[in-house]
## 1
Amino acid sequence: METTAAFDWAGVVDYAKRSYSEPPKTQYELPGVNVENHLDVPVACVPLWHSVVTARLNLPKGDAAALRQGQKRLRAALEEIERIYPLQPGGILIQVAYGLPYFKEFIPAAVTDKMMPRALENGKPGDWAVIDAIRFPKDPADLVLEQNDISFHFKSDYNEHLSDVMRALFQPGTQTLNGIPVKSVYVGDLFTVTSIRRGFAGRGMPRTMATRLGIPGADKIPAGAMLFMGFTSSHVHGLAQGTLPSFETIPGYTDQTPESYFANGTMMHLSHIAIDLEGWYGLDHKGRLQRMFHARRTEAPEVLSPSQAPQTTTFKEQMEEDAKQHGLIGHNAQMQFLSRLDKDTVTVYGDRLPKGTVLFLRQDFDTVENPFEFNAGAPVSPAPRPGVHFIGFCPSAQLFEKVRKEMDSVEMQKKYNLPDENTGFTKFLVTTHRQNYLEPSRSHRSFPLAELS
Ligand code: HEM
């Protein structure tokens, strides 16, 4: 007779596992994100609602026991959330990243000296692969270079899921998640929240939000656009796939290996950028298309997702040719010679990648906040302002710096006498805040290195 003793009765009727997939090793890979076909161009259907919470730690510096206790509590809280909400856009996806003040002020130098990933290429030899964000040539004088200890990025197709989870994590009092009473989720006493930043991506939201809020230029935003500037920004061919942005995956960027503590971790840059929508839509369709992609693009106005396949890549020689021939370089053309592989490459995991494969990952989303919903450091304006919370991942902050400098293209401008309006689209952007973070693997997402302190 069959025995029922091994059957897990406690685990039955679990809606959180309705479409269960094994959690990835990284935090930045997003289970459950499907791919849409836009006229044979594959596009990732990213979660609709986003929020970022940044904070400083309330723990006493040098108190290893308190840090380890905090590590246990945050780990338990995140696990409890994922037992209740499915790990997919229909539930919630959470990423936790740590700023340099966390590693410098809370983890003993003897531990960080040994464990932090170091950049092998670009920048000063021996430097950590996460260094402070810098002010870029076209940043405004009042740019804020932030010094947060921690950043949480929450994503879901349902705005209420974000609010529910943020309430349970950060607000004291009776706690529920999806209506279910929970005990171990509140960790708000560990943090002083420094900002709450909310936004959206996809589903025609940029035009809807801008129109309803009366933002000038709203009527020009294409109805299906996923971001304010009109073009799709989640092309499968324009987003690093698998673990490509991790410190260790593509040989040469850092000293990390698949066995390292920070394997499956990455460098994350978080910035807030305001957009001059009226200025941008003052350009005609061709002007926008070519400033977004490159000067040789001819797609019709209704095409919001022009192909980003490897063979469309603009490498350095072609970028110089565009500047010479057309007197214009597009946003993609400015950076693709660094954000994509310039030769066929084999990863440390044995995957063969053709030239033109992208290794840079973006998870940015639009906002109408001015600049944030809550900002501990400065006043918030109720007047809506279109913008982007830019979130980029790559194997080192040194590489990010190099890529982002190309977006300002000061040298190319000088060399080819390019006017500001023909140099990508930075003329229409104002960056207000920046910080670099280390986003560890899922297994080390709660206070990394605390257990070694
Ligand atoms: C308002 C801000 C921004 C908007 C609207 C924007 C939009 C886009 C779009 C539409 C694409 C091409 C579509 C795709 O590949 O999915 C793209 C590509 C790219 N963006 Fe941005 N972007 C913004 C800011 C930035 C920033 C701050 C960086 C930082 C370095 C950046 C880096 C890149 C890179 C590297 C690519 C090319 C990826 C590749 O094809 O290799 N972008 N962006």
Note: Residues 64-84 form the longest helix (21 residues).
## 2
Amino acid sequence: MAVSPGRCGGTTEAGVDTRASLVEFLERAGGEPFCDGCLALQVGAPLLEVRAALAGEGGPMVRATGRCSVCFRTLEVTRIPARSAQRPPS
Ligand SMILES: [Zn+2]
């Protein structure tokens, strides 16, 4: 059952839900980098909304030039470094 909260509030700020979706997706991706276009496809949000969300507070998200793990183009990508992957067991 799909639940869509916040519809009756009337003041849902554009980009907040998108940003939360991006963070959740990137955390689940375990540090894989994604370009803006592929992120938009992955979270099902308009590209403009994704870019607006990414342009806001950085938070856990890291922006850098790199290769997108979906379309393999080298451009500006976004990822969330996986904490558990930063220090592999020796
Ligand atoms: Zn891509």
Note: The mean pLDDT is 83.
## 3
Amino acid sequence: MVPDTRTLPPDAPAGDRRKVPGDGLALTSTQLIEFYRLMVTSRGIDDREITLKRQNKTFFQISSAGHEAIGVAVAAHLRPAHDWFYLYYRDRALSLALGQTPYEHFLQAVAAESDPASGGRQMPCHFCDPRLNITSMSSPTGTQFLQAVGCAEGGRRAAGLPDMRARVGQVEEDEIVLVSAGEGATSEGEFWEALNTACTLKLPVLFLIEDNGYAISVPVEVQTAGGSISGLASSFPDLFIAKCDGTDVIDSYKASRAAVHHCRRGRGPALVHAYTIRPYSHSMSDDERAYRTVEERFAEEERDPLTRTRQLLLDLKVATAGQLDRIEAEAQVAVREAATEALGQPQPPPERALVNLYSETAPPTQPQFDTEGSAAFDRGSKPLTMVDLVNRCLGDEMERDPRIVVFGQDVADASREEALEQVQGKGGVFKVTHGLQKRFGSERVFNSPLAEANIVGRAIGMAARGLRPVVEIQFFDYIWPAFMQIRNELATMRYRSNSAFDAPVVIRVPFGGYLTGGGIYHSQTGASLFTHTPGLRVALPSNALDASGLLRTAIRCDDPVIFLEHKHLYRQVYNKSREPGRDFMIPFGKARIAREGSDLTIVTCGALVKRSLDAARVASQKDGIEAEIVDLRSLSPFDMDAIATSVRKTNRVLVAYEDGLSWGYGAEIAARVADQLFEWLDAPVRRIASRDCWVAYAPQLEEVILPQVPDVVAAIRELAAF
Ligand SMILES: Cc1ncc(C[n+]2csc(CCOP(=O)(O)OP(=O)(O)O)c2C)c(N)n1
Ligand SMILES: [Mg+2]
């Protein structure tokens, strides 16, 4: 008869426990047996998937073999649907321990439409389960760290703000966020950014690093200075560190218990460095015999967590060999049945390929976002600049929706609260967020470190739990460190999670040239890099009024938006407007006819709108040519109907844009016009754009590199004469 509860000897585990406080470790035999059942189930799923892949019944396989012990041990201290989880692909046992089923894992492997993690969009072991607070994982290594920080931070901020808390869903006082990854992924800069912010804000994030010694074929000593990630991280303040043998359930249990305890008590983040093994090569696309010696591989076999746990249970007399054999056999039956059932499930039908790219309930294209006709202009007030109206829109929206947080570099008035009373406030290098911190407090308006991926990654983590981040990237020229987060994380969130999660984040970005001296790194364009990213929406207003209306829509809609604010247009007198009212919205995909004309159409946006208007005036006065100007306002989606209507009238098209000519935004417009409106055209589609060059600092060079009014005039004349 096995006693139901026993205290295991504290000297049982291997590994370094110097920093693990407390020795009393109570585990029931039932728990230990459950650990074993989950571990053999996890290995059984991997083995079954490998067979299915060889039979071409699944399409990819990556295993959790060797990582089972740390997985079940850490999960024992965590609370699904209470804590939050950012997992990685070797966390099959962990996810089973949190409550997922073998059937659900197989549904993803066979790419079933009913796969609850992604609806057949993602490879196997890309876990996602909103019922358990397992957020959607993607494939890039290391992108999950900053999102986990944002998730923990979102909970913390909401916990302190009753209005926000009431709107964002469940927030638990003692919740923690688990984020896991391999040791190789810690070489990504975002790991260090995440540790930095987690420690700065003392957030309850548990970093679980499952160190199997290899990142595909690259061994840890090539990856990590000194060969130990916990050693490298040891000087972060308030970071609790525990090392353990991740193939030993007891050692793993103790280390993760201490780490969870630290986080739950609000003492800051923790890092568990678990030494695991990787007995099955990196994935089925890899053969480790190409780079590992026979001796090394055999030595690793000695540490197989399944063998070790089985022996432990026998040594402790928790179960007999016969009982363990039966558990294994039952697990195999359950796995086989789950696989068979999943194999009968159909893949998504072809007509569903594009579903879930964008919100179906609140996309920015919907009529609910068109209040343009009922603007409530305050007749008595002065016209305001684009900076003023964007600032007012942000303030109005923050007042309306307590879920909105605003952050980025320099966006706060003054990070030091003691300074806040005495100073005027910074509020952004362009002053667009000026006064918002004073008005809404430092929990909702705050500065980030100088790290662009940090801003977007955290925003995605906050959005996953219901906050509405409106962040600023200081200059478009410096958005690139965040591009991985924007393209692979933000834009894919809805699609890859089958709409279980979304990411309604607005990224405001000062953009563009014509600064006279902006140079290479303060003049950049490149909108097409974002319009080429499915899942994103992109806007580029050319005047203060449109900026107000488009930003309000961007904030209220459920899709992620890149909101390009042209720096050159920020304070121009010619584009000012009166305040249009708190509900003034312009939907995306609705162009504006900036000038009516009958001889040719100029399709344009941003700073080229004014240049086209000036050129059209010259052409009208000097040549009698009347150009119609279509200001697109939103670049993705764009208003093809407005273009078509104009082209059917004028039969000639010039596309004018600020990106470099080749592969730039207008190239696609020109191609669409040529393709869809060919029979309406009396002349070839012409383009005016920047030279395929950086914008040089010398004003004389800037002038020839960026398209100018005379260039547009010349193109109008040429096109009209064709
Ligand atoms: C950003 C990025 N670069 C490269 C890859 C390809 N890749 C997938 S897994 C992997 C190795 C990861 O090693 P590690 O973090 O140690 O995890 P392990 O697979 O060993 O568990 C690489 C290079 C990727 N998915 N993402
Ligand atoms: Mg590794």
Note: The pocket of thiamine diphosphate (ligand 1) is lined by residues 90, 139-141, 181-185, 212, 214-216, 278, 282 (CB under 6 Å).
## 4
Amino acid sequence: MFIVTSGKKFVDIDALACVYAYSMLLKLMEIRAIPVITAMPNQSVISRFRVQNLYTTQLPPDAISNDAQFVVMDVSDPAFFDSIVEIDKVTNVFDHHPGFEAFWKDRIGDGAVIEPIGAAATLIFEEYVKNDAVEKMDRLTAELLYLAIVSNTLNFGASVTSGRDKNACMKLKTLFSFTDDLAKEYFEEVDKVVYTNTSLALQNDTKIIPFGGGIVGIAQLELWNSMDLQNGKFEIIESFLSQLSADYAFLNLIEISKSRNTLVCANEQTAQWLVSFMGNLKRESATILRSSSLLLRKQILSSIYDKFGR
Ligand SMILES: [Mn+2]
């Protein structure tokens, strides 16, 4: 029996799509697989993917007696695995975050598929291709994988996007006759949720990260159209940032339809600090910075590590 799961703190649509789609693939191959997620879905998981029973939130009672093995999706640092995972029983890891490739290659060999592409969902689509199962994929699985790739690559605008991500989406789009509206409507629904409950969305996508020069708190929101948020939500954002336990804190607001980022800083020191080592940021005001291309948190973090060390 395989338990397919992901991370500990929250799951995004990429993690959820991988967990569900890979469980379905194993079932198609007549292998017993159960998708289990104990973490909360974040705002990238829109309501119609919450109401359906895409996964269970508890380890099945017979998991231990059946000698369950674990497949982990969209995360490879064991510190961030779902708390149900027994690390010695992990047989497969699919991820696109760097850092633990060698660790897993040594342990599970080909069971580790960790590659720097736009979405982990692309890796799972490729598993369907390898196993000749694309034609047997159902529409819900296809939609989840497609939207996960669109979401994680910021509609293909993020620089991490690879040809493999685009290829997977193109094939799914053709096979299931998806229209361009599918992605647009998805992003607009996420916008609405973020606007309705901005504090929760911020909480659900904030990372507090130690680095060579102190501690940085980075909140991230990915919005199709950020106008609504810019009109009237700045106070919520500023008070959220100011209560984070960090030396520097900012919100990385990704404005997908405008292909730019706005960085809302907790204070002027944070803005000055960011501008001092990130060449691609322009100052809009004392605490607002802007980039002219899409920037993901992991890219900003790489710049921080490059400048100040880990
Ligand atoms: Mn991902």
Note: The CA atoms of residues 215 and 246 lie 5 Å apart.
